[in-house]
Design goal:
Elements (H helix, E strand, L loop, with lengths): L5 H4 L5 E2 L3 E2 L2 H8 L3 H16 L2 H11 L3 H7 L3 H12 L2 H11 L3 H12 L2
Antiparallel strand pairs: 1-2
Length: about 120
């Protein structure tokens, strides 16, 4: 789904996927996502994975990277996209991350789009 600037104006009535209403603040946050903010969110997601040893090991195995390589690649946009893809692929992991960091799951989808395109 594409986010439009007009969404912020209609936030009280706007729905994403017909499920949840957006508050004005959430709508502005989602529509104002830039690459710096998206990268920061991806790095927060990586830190979240790093403290969950089993989950981090699964991510490292799936990505074919060892912990030292993960650290070295943390500044690469393609790597950050892979972190977001990993979290977005597991609904419970996504919800845990969002509850832990007070993020909206939609923000991760938007960040992934901003960093990696459609």
């Amino acid at each position: 789904m594409r986010f439009r600037r007009g969404m912020a104006r209609r936030a009280g009535a706007a729905k994403i996927g017909g499920v949840n209403e957006l508050t004005d603040e959430m709508a502005r946050s989602l529509t104002s996502m830039n690459s710096d903010r998206a990268a920061t969110l991806a790095l927060e997601a990586l830190a979240f994975l790093a403290v969950r040893q089993e989950t981090f090991e699964r991510f490292a195995d799936l990505s074919g990277l060892d912990p030292a390589t993960v650290s070295a690649r943390a500044a690469e946009v393609e790597f950050l996209v892979s972190v977001l893809d990993f979290i977005l692929a597991d609904e419970q992991l996504l919800l845990d991350f969002c509850e832990n960091g007070s993020s909206d799951p939609r923000a991760l989808h938007v960040a992934r789009h901003v960093l990696g395109g459609p």
